[in-house]
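Hi P.,

Sorry for the delay on this. The queue was packed all week, but I finally got your sequence through. Input first:
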Amino acid sequence: MYSKAIIIFLLCAGLLGGCSGWNPADGKTPGKSNYQKTPDGYYRVRRGDTLHAIAFSFGLDWKNIAGWNGISAPYTIYPDQEIRLSAPSGYSRQTTKNSSTATVVKAAPSSSSTSKTVDYKPETKSGPAPKTSPAPAPVPVAKSVDPGQWLWPVEGRIISNFKPNDPARKGIDIGGKEGQPVIASASGEVVYSGSGLIGYGELIIIKHSEQLLSAYAHNSKRLVSEGQKVTGGDRIADMGKNDRNQAMLHFEIRLNGTPKNPLNYLPKR
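Then the structure:
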């Protein structure tokens, strides 16, 4: 009888564990982004990632990540490529009025390559410089978006305010009704449209300038795709619900990768 009771207890424990909804073996932590560093501090690119989404997830400036890895316009990355998330030893960034250059180079990646971009030495060549094709034209985005030029992304009352140094409150939450229009707060280019960042649901990130990004999370439907140009006021999504089944929009503004209080940019109500 005693042995049978132990067996029943173990079976029940196993069933409860199987219903927990999270398996430690899958490498994911509940409630956190599934953008995880490798043990040596890199990030391995997955299909559907963008440089801006990676930077957004880790709270970094996308320009820094590009410089640290020698990634230039149009900032293409590849599945299985390993991205450095901190400056390499001896790294320096020289910024001029019209362009930015970094004293790093990287090997040309391929879709099957898994090698790290760790050969961070200036490239030197003897003889005359080879002819190169003209660099692609930069994406036309607004040079700046000043406070007061932004639009509220959705109609509704604020249900959660921005709080500095609180990872759970990097923006504001605006309540409303599921399906109501979500608009671009300012003109720019869509640099991410997907659901790869756990905790953000269906997410859209818009690049307004080299420094400014805005993010729109928990949409029920995304109406724009990556690379698409939008104008302030354009409908980009329909409002969805958060994980508490509450209709709302989570809205963030980031300056050089750092979350800023959106109320300092949006017009006063």
